[in-house]
Amino acid sequence: MKKTTNHWTRTTVLGSIIGLLLWEAGCSSSAPDKAALLKIPGLPSGVTLHQDKDINGVWLAAGVDFKGYDALYIENPLFAAVERPNEAAMRSMALRLLPQSMAEYMEGTKLFPLVTLRTDDVKPGVRSLKLENTVIEYEKGGGGARYWAGMFGGGQPVIKVRGRVLEGEKLLCVYELRRSGESAGARLGGVWLSDEEIQRNDIRDLASDLADFFKRTAKAP
């Protein structure tokens, strides 16, 4: 009995050590290198971000409420985070899905007669807004680390976006949104979900929260 207990103890300790190592490896991989930091656009002068419900950080110019515009054009996002060779396929997926999801949820707000990913769709002379997005933090995640520390964020995919809303050359809004295994399924059963499934859910969650912010702002007095 004692031998069995000792074996169980050694196995448990070894498993915990491996789990901690995997979790630490996941955390350390998120640290940006100097080259990536140089690509991240700085905040415009005078812009200070504050949290607004599910928006991690936002600045809004005085008097802006997102009402009365004829079109919203969403540019293809830029990437200014660490580029890891093993993340190329997931990174490509995320950069495609991000504007598509934003367009889908923005259309659902009914604020804009036209929501488009094509600049040619916006006719000259119409009152329009443009969304510019830059991914400033990114990780594809890993199931091994999620097995041991998924509840605490270990192994979860990460995506952080900094965006700007412009009317012509006039800056109206700056926002930041970060998502990492937001769904209960990612935290409780993330080891059975793929990295891509979790990140797709995170991107949709991000896009939904941004659209909700637009709706709340449009209804403001």
Structural summary, described in words:
The protein is an alpha/beta fold. It has one domain: Rossmann fold (3-Layer(aba) Sandwich), CATH 3.40.50. The chain has six helices and eight strands. Strands 1, 2, 3, 4, 5, 6, 7 and 8 form an eight-stranded mixed β-sheet that branches. Strand 7 (158-167) and strand 8 (170-179) form a beta hairpin. Helix 1 packs across helix 4 (143-149) and helix 3 (88-109) runs parallel beside helix 6 (195-218). Mean pLDDT is 80; it is low at 1-32 and 145-153.
Number of DSSP helices?
Answer: 6
The geometry reads as globular
**Separation of the first and last Cα atoms:** 72 Å
Mean pLDDT score: 80
Query: What is the annotated CATH architecture?
Result: 3-Layer(aba) Sandwich
Largest sheet: 8 strands, mixed
Rg value? 21 Å
Overall helicity: 40-55%
Q: Structurally, how many domains make up the residues?
A: 1
Global structural class: alpha/beta
Number of β-strand runs: 8
Series of secondary-structure elements, N-terminal to C-terminal? HHEEEEHEEHEEHH
- The level-1 CATH class: Alpha Beta
Task: Give the low-pLDDT segments.
Answer: 1-32, 145-153
SS strand fraction: 15-25%
- Under CATH, the topology is which? Rossmann fold
